[in-house]
Amino acid sequence: MRQPRVPDDFLGGYERMLTDVAETGRLLLRPELDELRDLGERAAEAGYGLGPLIGLYLGETRRLWGSLPGAVRASGASASARTADALLGAVDTAVGALGEGHERAQRLAVRQEEAARREFVDDLLYGRSDLGRLAERAERFGLRLARSHAVAVVEGEEPYDDVHPVVRRVERELIARFGEHDVLLTTKEGRLVCVAAGEERERAILDAFTNRVREPGSGHTGARWVAIGREHPGAGGVVSSYEEALGALELADRLGLPGPVLRAADLLVFPVLRRDRAAMTDLVRTVLGPLTRARGGAGPLLETLSACAAAGYVNAEAARRLNIGVRTLSYRLERIKTLTGYDPGDALQRFTLETAAMGARLLGWPGSPL
């Protein structure tokens, strides 16, 4: 696409500068360079590219060249060469000053855009703005908040920031595949965050995002955890999904959940358990409290319950995970039954034991007192 021509208004006092240089052979003065920098900055703010701006000045130089004062050029070839050299030096300096001003304006625009984007992201994830105003701002960043959205949060072995190679690589690939609408990639508190539009497109975006962040590359390991919140409607839905993803990361850290992909929809039992701390404490104390009488304390037996549940109560697999023999595992299960009165072989009683074991891990028991 052809860029628009820069108006002659942006030439300022360029003709006067060149005329004076041709007459005296001097360098451009500081006030003249400041004027050129300001013109470059104004051109950038008006939306004109640096190329067309330089083209305007080179075209003006060519137009003026034959009409510049001839007294110096007429005094001999050497004087003419000196004049030409002074003029070319002035043009080179002028172009450099224009570029500095243009770049200065672009840097400022980038900083302002980054600040606006960061403010929007904070308001979006924390729900700190009027929803109507937030929806208007969201359009600028490719989101339509009237739709449903889901949020994925990535925790890596090292903190993420906006210039991290993984962030830039994933952003390029997502934009190339899905475009700049219905997906927002950002970082927050050292984590990588992806907000995706709902329904089928959301699932495709988050699947692609999850696959990309798990891939090692450029000297970086893959993601440690990828937590995905559920899909919720509206601007408030983004906040809800983000909080669910953060909650999943917290659970993964506290409970050592298998990963690296955690879906909030698969972890709904944990918010239920945490909602009534008193009831959960009573459950753990009543069901698992007797395990403290075992030799070695409750820890090994509680670990055995968790390993059996993770292994689907296949004793050989649970023993392998615990790095013990099957006979030792069977002995521990028998001790659990004897001490608690709950049989891991009975479906209902096993559910009670597993729920109590989950509650114990959430409470940090037996390391922390109930």
TrEMBL record:
What family does the database annotate? Answer: Belongs to the CdaR family.
Q: What is this protein called?
A: Transcriptional regulator, CdaR
Q: Where does the record place the PucR C-terminal helix-turn-helix domain?
A: 301-356
The top of its lineage is: Bacteria, Bacillati, Actinomycetota, Actinomycetes, Kitasatosporales
- All copies of the CdaR GGDEF-like domain together span 127-251
